[in-house]
Write a structure and sequence with these properties.
heterodimer, A: 333 residues, alpha/beta, six-stranded mixed beta sheet, 29% strand, globular, B: 447 residues, alpha+beta, five-stranded mixed beta sheet, 19 helices, 16 strands, 46% helix
Chain lengths: 333, 447
């Protein structure tokens, strides 16, 4: 058993806080938080891990400086605060989706693309003799993106919250901010520019490069988490279907079930005879993609199947976690 | 090792440019970021190394040209525009992964218009590299101004012109179809005209439509700091653009042909001449100036066969206003470049445009393009002393140094060192030197 403690930083508040604990639970990594006002917790499945609850930005800081060796946060925050010791361990946890984007007042009916905005920025310079003011929490990403788009004359107005209100209040002209559904933008009379997406973000697992390289305990924890996560993400799209079918032999039933690609399963159906009242009944077990579930059930019925039981797959473990192989490459171990 | 080579190279290039009357000036490394951002469109802006101090955005200098223009404006405000020749050398910075600092060497000739100034800068750049040992450096010369003058006949607005110039590289790489697609998608396509109705063309009716629209939808609650009038003005410009698609396509055709020209001066100038309308005196004047530069370069010893004319040569377009050039080694290293930038003084806050032309060497490719022997600094000779002969060793060293030879006094001898003997002679490899003349003779033979 591991004696070294490993610290995992998780978001304490904000849009991805609850989804993160739910996600980990779905992966078989339930997080226990003894007291909602404390900043620590534990994961029974990984007893050597201490959980530290932090704001998403602090998760990035703590993992970068090694206070925590692993963490879950948003890709947007990682891109905004890059650090040479910060490595993204898993970049596709498939929740916490949002976009960091450029939004302008709805009243600017002449502005539909970033090219229009480039021109408006020049207008400001030439006619108003001042810079376009951009409110954002993401000053690094915003600056880089605007320069990439050919907008060089702008002033970043840093603010920590309620960015969407800046153009109405009047302390900025446009904003660069996160959008999940677009409701907040509409309520504040702003519109997103379709080619103004700075980052497409979602939740991600991050780690401290040095700790991953030097501490076997940290690397093993990353591997264990990735096994659970990859397994759960793989399993999420599948169901296990059990159905009773009458037939002459195992081979004959197998031939009929496997004749349709959607009921062929991962390798093929598992079939065993039922020792009951009537001869010739077999139980067929097969893994089926959820998107084909109804079609599969229909086909199994056509084969004379009945008593069809569907159970969600919690995890599918492949030969090895594909993400872990990539991680080893990324940290050069 | 690399630092040694750069130091040596910088010293020699400085001497070389001093012979052309260029005075070395020092500029601050940290400046307000705004100074460098004025050069809108330059590639370096993406990688400008910026940081905040007490609410001011500062930057590490990414190059010297903007600093030269700024120094000129602050020293010679008002209406006198003396001719100055400045050269620069030192570290410049960019926020790129891994390599924050490079060494840069360059020169600026400010206050002087015309072909003579352009030829002087181009020739100094090419001859300086040649004197350092770059064999037959090649010049690629383009002209930002001539292209702008010729584009005028298509009556494009600034915006479309900017778009086309910005897409010149993709025009060459991916062809006209791609650029047209981008153009339709981003500039001409879904115009805001959908919102205001096809017949709304006058400023007054557009203003009325917009007012009605904004009031009815409550979109007008948030305006940023633009007025409705600002928006109307741009809406009309966009509409006008949408009607000009044919013009834009014609301009694209022109640019495609223009970009395709790349050959020796006489052949290229003949092609360019065909593209200039007989009554376009402005374009003819600019072409005349360009030809004169090539003629003057010949007087500097730069033959036409080492020059390629590429009229669409894309350097930072917003910033250059005339001749632009790149310097290449035969081995394919891009070792320098520059051009004319008459508007920069005004862009960075001066009252007037001041004619200016300059260039910079790209030191790393330049070092790579040098023959090995030239790139290696001549090592100092090493003198060690036998016991009791330290004073002799020092006298030998001083005598050699007085004659311009670099000498290191070593603790202990090695295979490469001379060893001073207690009888006052110097030994190396079985030979004995009794006088400074015999040693100097030996050193010259070795070279």
């Amino acid at each position: 058993m591991m004696t070294e403690r490993v610290t995992l930083a998780l978001p304490s508040k904000g849009a991805i806080a609850d989804p993160t604990t739910n996600f980990l639970q779905d992966c078989g990594l339930r997080v226990d938080k003894p007291n909602p006002r404390q900043y620590t917790g534990s994961i029974p499945a990984l007893p050597w891990v201490d959980v530290l609850f932090q704001r998403v930005t602090d998760v990035v800081y703590k993992v970068s400086d090694g206070t925590a060796q692993l963490g879950i946060t948003g890709l947007d925050v990682v891109r905004e605060h890059p650090h040479e010791d910060l490595v993204v361990v898993h970049n596709d946890l498939r929740y916490g989706y949002c976009k960091l984007l450029v939004a302008v007042p709805e009243s600017w009916v002449d502005v539909e693309t970033m090219i229009d905005l480039t021109e408006v920025a020049l207008d400001f310079r030439e006619h108003k003799r001042r810079n376009l003011r951009v409110a954002t929490v993401y000053s690094n990403l915003a600056r880089q993106f605007l320069h990439d788009q050919g907008i060089h004359h702008f002033t970043l107005v840093s603010a920590e919250g309620a960015i969407e209100a800046a153009p109405t209040i009047g302390y900025a002209d446009i904003i660069v901010d996160l959008m999940q559904t677009g409701t907040t933008l509409r309520e504040n009379h702003l519109k997103a520019l379709p080619d103004g997406v700075v980052v497409e973000s979602q939740a991600c697992l991050v780690g401290n490069r040095q700790a991953l390289r030097e501490s076997p305990a940290v690397l093993d924890t990353a591997r264990a988490m990735l096994e659970h996560i990859d397994g759960a993400l793989q399993g999420r799209g599948f169901s296990q279907v059990t159905v009773n079918i009458h037939g002459e032999s195992v081979q004959e039933i197998a031939r009929r079930v496997a004749a349709n690609p959607i009921t062929r399963g991962l390798q093929g159906p598992t079939i065993s005879p039922i020792h009951g009242t009537e001869d010739g009944w077999h139980t067929v077990t097969v893994i089926i993609s959820n998107s084909n579930l109804l079609a599969a059930v229909q086909y199994l019925r056509e084969l004379g199947g009945s008593q069809c039981i569907v159970v969600p797959v919690r995890s599918i473990f492949l030969d090895q976690s594909p993400t872990f192989a990539r991680l080893q490459e990324a940290i050069g171990s | 090792m690399r630092d040694k080579v750069i130091n040596l190279l910088a010293g020699r290039l400085e001497q070389f440019m001093t012979r052309y009357g260029y005075e070395k000036i020092e500029t601050p490394i940290i400046q307000p970021a705004e100074l460098f951002l004025s050069k809108a469109g330059d590639q370096i802006i993406h990688r400008l190394f910026t940081f905040d101090r007490l609410g001011r955005q500062l930057a590490l200098r990414p190059e010297f040209t903007a600093l030269a223009a700024y120094a000129y404006v602050t020293q010679f405000g008002g209406n006198t525009h003396p001719v100055i020749r400045w050269q620069f050398g030192g570290p410049v910075f960019e926020d790129a992964a891994g390599d924050y600092q490079r060494y840069s060497i360059g020169a600026e000739l400010i206050g002087m218009a015309g072909a003579a100034a352009e030829a002087e800068i181009i020739a100094m750049a090419a001859n300086g590299a040649a004197e350092r040992g770059v064999e037959h450096p090649n010049l690629v010369i383009g002209h930002a101004q001539l292209m702008r003058v010729l584009l005028e006949r298509f009556k494009l607005d600034n915006r479309t012109q900017r778009f086309l110039l910005h897409h010149l590289p993709s025009l060459r790489q991916t062809g006209k179809t791609y650029v047209l697609e981008q153009l339709d998608k981003l500039l001409l396509g879904q115009g805001a005209s959908d919102n205001i109705g096809a017949e709304a063309v006058s400023e007054l009716s557009t203003q009325q439509m917009l007012d009605a629209l904004l009031d009815a939808t409550q979109r007008g609650v948030t305006m940023g700091s633009r007025t409705r009038h600002d928006i109307v003005r741009r809406l009309l410009q966009k509409r006008q653009r949408a009607t000009e698609r044919d013009q834009v396509v014609a301009a694209l055709d022109f640019l495609e042909a223009w970009s395709a020209i790349s050959s020796a001066p006489e052949a290229a100038f003949a092609l360019i001449e065909e593209m200039i309308a007989p009554d376009d005196t402005e374009a003819q004047r600019v072409l005349e100036n360009w030809r004169e530069v090539i003629t003057l370069l010949d007087a500097y010893g730069i033959q036409p066969n080492s020059i390629t004319i590429q009229p669409a040569l894309a350097r930072s377009w917003d910033y250059y206003t005339g001749i632009v050039f790149e310097l290449w080694s035969k081995s394919g290293h891009h070792i320098g470049g520059g051009g004319r930038y008459d508007e920069l003084t005004r862009l960075i806050g001066g009252d007037h445009d001041v004619p200016a032309v300059g260039f910079a060497y790209y030191i790393d490719p330049l070092v790579a393009a040098l023959p090995e022997a030239v790139a290696t600094a001549q090592p100092p000779i090493v003198i060690a002393a036998n016991s009791g002969a330290v004073a002799h060793a020092i006298r030998w060293a001083q005598a050699l140094r007085a004659r311009g030879v670099s000498v290191v006094l070593a603790d202990t001898g090695s295979d490469n060192s001379y060893v001073a003997q207690s009888d006052g002679t110097l030994h190396k490899a079985g030979e004995t030197y009794a006088t400074i003349e015999s040693l100097l003779h030996r050193l010259e033979v070795a070279q």
